[in-house]
Write a structure and sequence with these properties.
Blueprint: E1 3-8, H1 10-13, H2 22-37, E2 41-46, H3 49-54, H4 65-89, E3 95-100, H5 108-123, E4 127-132, H6 146-156, E5 161-166, E6 186-187, H7 209-220, E7 225-230, H8 236-242, E8 250-252, H9 261-267, E9 275-279, H10 281-288, E10 300-305, E11 312-316, E12 322-327, H11 332-338, E13 353-354
Helix pairs in contact: 2-4, 6-7
């Protein structure tokens, strides 16, 4: 049996008028309960709070986008979690609410605390229902959408499978509404299908298929199987896990050798970098090669920013392109002092280096 992260979008969970689609929610809960009964561990990433709130309250004055999200999510999250609580109670399954923010993934300590919390919930038969804490998030610190959050959670929790349920069957060779477009059933490890994605998004959600495709590609390269499918098909979730050939979907095949948990964290931490170092061509080539190498000071030509030991830094080649992201073994002052020197300790050890760019 496996650990499954299920992300379900706003357009699956809400009706066109913004009210909760209890029929779809009930069907989803039925399927999660069935998978749980079969021994699977399920983590639910649920959108819908803002949409639920929008359908329940009318602002008394014009609000900016951040204030509107805070208002609607504060009202909608209560409605959303209460519906889930009542639906899962029919199966005797307790649920727990996990509200998080992007900055909770920037610190290794916070990251591990979140992981420990959800592991404890799973060990005690509690299904974590995860959403962004919109009431406390600022625009520049928000997740792109819950697709990004689902990828972070899948990586953090060492999930076997991430299922992204949307309002389309998967990735198509063109616009999904075009009869000439065909569903892409499998994306091989390392294959780029982003050129097929139409730049559009659904009515209530922040993200679109482009984001889903990007997240799916990145998470699959970390060793997690990713499936994109339509969420309102009957028994879609159970079928995807137990009878995948019976339902249309796009599967992103995982890389054969999964990354370690620490490298999965670093892979998603580029936006949290406190500084950067530029390396020469020889060092860049070595880091991009197949051998396991650490970043040594002798290959560094420039140091920018201020950071402490343990912070995330970006490594650039002479042209300014990202070579890697890593957890610094020394602070910025030490990195600057040892720049170009031989015999010094690594600036970033290989075990804390992610180079899949």
């Amino acid at each position: 049996m496996g650990r499954i992260v299920v992300k379900v979008g706003s357009n699956v969970l809400t009706r066109p008028d913004g009210k909760p689609n209890v029929t779809n929610m009930s069907a989803l809960v039925d399927q999660i309960a069935a998978l749980t009964a079969r021994g699977h561990e399920v983590i639910l990433i649920s959108s819908g709070a803002v949409a639920c709130g929008r359908g329940a309250v009318t602002p008394r004055r014009q609000l900016d986008s951040v204030a509107a999200r805070q208002l609607f999510s504060s009202v909608g999250q209560i409605r959303l979690i209460n519906i889930y609580n009542d639906l899962f109670a029919h199966y005797g399954i307790p649920v727990g609410q996990v509200l998080t923010q992007k900055e909770n993934f920037s610190s290794r300590t916070s990251y591990l605390n979140q992981r420990s919390c959800m592991l404890t919930m799973l060990e005690n038969g509690v299904i974590p229902i995860v959403n962004e804490n919109d009431t406390a998030s600022l625009t520049e610190l928000m997740f792109t959408d819950n697709d990004e959050l689902s990828g972070l959670v899948a990586a953090m929790m060492d999930a076997d499978t991430l299922v992204i349920l949307s309002n389309v069957d998967g990735i198509f060779t063109g616009p999904p509404a075009d009869p000439a477009s065909k569903l892409i059933p499998v994306v091989r490890s390392g294959e780029d299908v982003s050129g097929n994605v139409v730049a559009s998004k659904s009515g209530f959600g922040r993200g679109g298929m482009g984001t889903k495709c990007g997240i799916a590609g990145k998470v699959s390269e970390e060793g997690v199987r990713v499936i994109i499918a339509r969420g309102d098909r009957p028994d879609v979730l159970v079928d995807l896990i137990e009878r995948p050939e019976s339902v249309p979907h796009t599967l992103f095949e995982p890389r054969p050798e999964p990354l370690s948990n620490i490298k999965r964290w670093i892979a998603h931490s580029a936006s949290f970098a406190k500084g950067c170092v530029t390396v020469n061509d020889r060092a860049a080539e070595a880091l991009r090669g197949d051998r396991a190498v650490s970043l040594l000071p002798v290959g560094v030509t420039a140091v920018e920013g201020e950071w402490e030991e343990g912070d995330i830094i970006t490594i650039l080649d002479p042209a300014g392109s990202t070579v890697a992201v890593g957890r610094a073994s020394v602070d910025s002052a030490t990195a600057l002092a040892s720049m170009g020197c031989r015999g010094s300790r690594p600036l970033v050890h290989y075990d804390y280096l992610y180079t899949e760019f």
